[in-house]
Q: What sequence folds into this?
C-alpha cells in the first residue's frame, strides 16, 4: 500500500478522488507500434511505478515509459487486484528506448541506483509483494548482465546487505490504467508525489549526474 507519512492513519493510494477510478483502461491502445518498431524494450519493478516512471523518462535515449504490472500469474489484472497481493504481480514499468543512445547496461545501473534492492517486499513507505524488486530480462544476454551486475554489487558490499532482487524472464507486461500513466507529471501537488516521488527523483539525480545525461528531448 502507498503511504505518505507514518503519522497518517490512512493510506494514500492511486485513487486520489472520492470515487473509484475506472480500471482496465488500457493505454496499450495508444501505443504507436510503427513509431517504436526500431526501439528496444526493458522492464523493471522497484516500488511505486509513479516514481520509477519519472526516473526513467528523465534519461537521454529513452523514448517512452509505461506503468504496468508484471511478474505474476493473473491475466489482465487491474490496480485493485494487484494491490491485494493475490495476483503475484509487482508494479512495473516498460521502457522504450533507443539502444544507440542508451544501453541496457545503463538502464540496469539506473535500476540499482534508484532504489533499495535489500528490502523484501518493500520500497520506502510502500510495502507488499507488489512493491518487490525485480529485474526482468528479455533474453539470455540480458539475464547474464543482470546476474553479473548483482554479483558485482554483492561482492563489493555496496549496499551492506544481501540483495534480494528477483531475476525473472518477462513473460507478460500488463499496462496499468490510464490515470496511472505520467501520474507524477500530471499530479505534482499530490501529497504522495510531494513527499515520496519527488524526493526519490531528486536523490537519483544527484547520483546520476556523473554518468547519465538528463535529456531535454526524446
A:
Amino acid at each position: 500500500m502507498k503511504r505518505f507519512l507514518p503519522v497518517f492513519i490512512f493510506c494514500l493510494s492511486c485513487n486520489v478522488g472520492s470515487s473509484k477510478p475506472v480500471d482496465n483502461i488500457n493505454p496499450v491502445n495508444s501505443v504507436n507500434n510503427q513509431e517504436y518498431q526500431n526501439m528496444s524494450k526493458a522492464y523493471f519493478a522497484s516500488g511505486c511505478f509513479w516514481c520509477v516512471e519519472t526516473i526513467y523518462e528523465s534519461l537521454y535515449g529513452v523514448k517512452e515509459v509505461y506503468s504496468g504490472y508484471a511478474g505474476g500469474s493473473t491475466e489482465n489484472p487491474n490496480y485493485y487486484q494487484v494491490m491485494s497481493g493475490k495476483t503475484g504481480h509487482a508494479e512495473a514499468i516498460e521502457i522504450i528506448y533507443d539502444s544507440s543512445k542508451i544501453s541496457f547496461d545503463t538502464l540496469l545501473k539506473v535500476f540499482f541506483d534508484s532504489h533499495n534492492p535489500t528490502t523484501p517486499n518493500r520500497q520506502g513507505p510502500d510495502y507488499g509483494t507488489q512493491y518487490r524488486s525485480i529485474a526482468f530480462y528479455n533474453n539470455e544476454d540480458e539475464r547474464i548482465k543482470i546476474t553479473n551486475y548483482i554479483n558485482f554489487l554483492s561482492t563489493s558490499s555496496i549496499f551492506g546487505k544481501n540483495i534480494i532482487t528477483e531475476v525473472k524472464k518477462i513473460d507478460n507486461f500488463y499496462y496499468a490504467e490510464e490515470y496511472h500513466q505520467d501520474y507524477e507529471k500530471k499530479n505534482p501537488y499530490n501529497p504522495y508525489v510531494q513527499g515520496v516521488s519527488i524526493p526519490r527523483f531528486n536523490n537519483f539525480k544527484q547520483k546520476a549526474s556523473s554518468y547519465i545525461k538528463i535529456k531535454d528531448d526524446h
